[in-house]
# Entry
Amino acid sequence: MNEENKVSYYAIIPANVRYDSELTDKAKLLYGEITCLSNKEGYCFATNNYFAKLYNCTTRAIQGAISKLQERGYVKIVIENNYKRKIFISSLKGDEKNFTRRYEDIFTRGDEKNFTNNNININKIDRLFNYIINKEQKIPEEFSETNFDEIYNLLQHFDMLYTEKIINCIGSENVDKIKQITYAIALIVKDNLQNYAYKITRDDIIDKYNECKNRENEYRGTEREIEDFSKYYYKSIANELKRGVTPSFFMSQNQSANEDEEER
# Structure
């Protein structure tokens, strides 16, 4: 197969698949390829012949590997009326599932450096958010010495405490926004800036998120590209809080951009 025809997205093979002793190495590799090909449409429609040519084996070997993945509950096969096969990933849990929802945002940029940074941040943000939502997990190590009562109080002040039921009813883009804001609020408490934070409103903190997100899109692909959005967003808020909120919580975009340039 020509190199230009191979998909350039990253593949994911979670721990439960990697360490399943009932799967062959080829089946595990095939699982990773399926996650790769599922990025664009949310499912993989490649044929056994495609996989056989890709991995230089027989279609029978591919069929056996896919059947085993289905038997173990890692993929789900759907055959439509036109006999077109769709393979869906069905094994991801917890942080891995949250990570997979962001496949297209992360992988389509084709930048390993950005992939690594975002992967780390997403895991950290999800661990904190999952702890706040269900409290069944351990306190994230990053906040082990932080007063969580103060985090909850500040979240409540900004009306950012959500139940799992509500989270399941809103779109993934809104969930991502809530997670980023929640993480920033927790960092405010960790850095002992919560007293300053009570001087601003929920609209302020959301507007700052939207402003930073717009700037992330504006700078993408340039030398000023924002590689770590969560850090950039928190730093934007923290800098304003430390300045004392006068004369206005928000600087103009040009002024903020100039200061960003000086910091670089």
User: Anything to note?
Assistant: Residues 112-134 form the longest helix (23 residues). The chain has a mean pLDDT of 77.
